[in-house]
Amino acid sequence: MKCPYCQEEMQLGYIPNGGQPVQWIPNGERPSVLSFSIAEQGVPLINQFKPFKANGYKAEAHYCSNCKVIIAPTKN
Ligand SMILES: [Zn+2]
Description:
The protein has no helices and 6 strands. It is mainly beta and 76 residues long. The strands form 2 sheets. Strands 1, 4, 5 and 6 form a 4-stranded antiparallel sheet that branches. The protein has a two-stranded antiparallel ribbon with strand order 2-3.
């Protein structure tokens, strides 16, 4: 993925999380109280669940070291 700011190639990595998928939640809303769940207003990032290797969810994320920005695609 090319950085939309500087057009350089971004570095692919991930954002680790625990028992809930990595998700974006609007200010004023709370995460679900349940594991494995997305909040009602939550927007899930593209998640993989790796219970043994990574100890939970991890979301795909692209990093640009020039612009100090991370872009994480969402599922829907
Ligand atoms: Zn950039």
